[in-house]
Amino acid sequence: MNKKAIFAAGCFWGVQYYFDKLPGVISTKVGYTGGTIANPTYEHVCSNNTDHYEAIEVEYDPKKISYEELLKYFFEIHDFSQKNGQGPDIGPQYLSVIFWGEESEKKTAEALIKILQQKGKTVATILLRVAIFYPAELYHQNYYQKKGHEPYCHFHHKIF
Description:
Elements: E1 3-9, H1 12-19, E2 25-33, H2 42-46, E3 53-60, H3 67-76, E4 85-86, E5 89-90, E6 96-100, H4 103-118, E7 126-129, E8 133-135, H5 143-147
Parallel strand pairs: 6-7
Antiparallel strand pairs: 1-3, 1-6, 2-3, 2-8, 4-5
């Protein structure tokens, strides 16, 4: 049975671009989570009055890729040390967040953060319990695939 994971790592376009390339990922959706209003729009989230994060919901096959492998990749595709956003995208909606649903997911995230810290890395990533995920507007879905561009503030660099 497939599982889902939710991550926030800056502008959701770039996060989706990279997770879509990962073997074992079935599908991805960009959207909003963690906030105070139901069915937020992009304009709501950009107002910084809703406490939502730009996030991605990843559906994956745990027989082909583990939650730990997803988390490692999450850390490798953004600057998890940045405290005020991601790259040039500044604001609370662009923070680095792992949304955990099961205690084992939280423990896995904590263990990886500890490894990164032992390597001398600063980790600004927040761990939050999973919240309702609201898919973003259609024009945000698969943005870079539609536009034929590559992300401007996301990159993949091997850490683990």
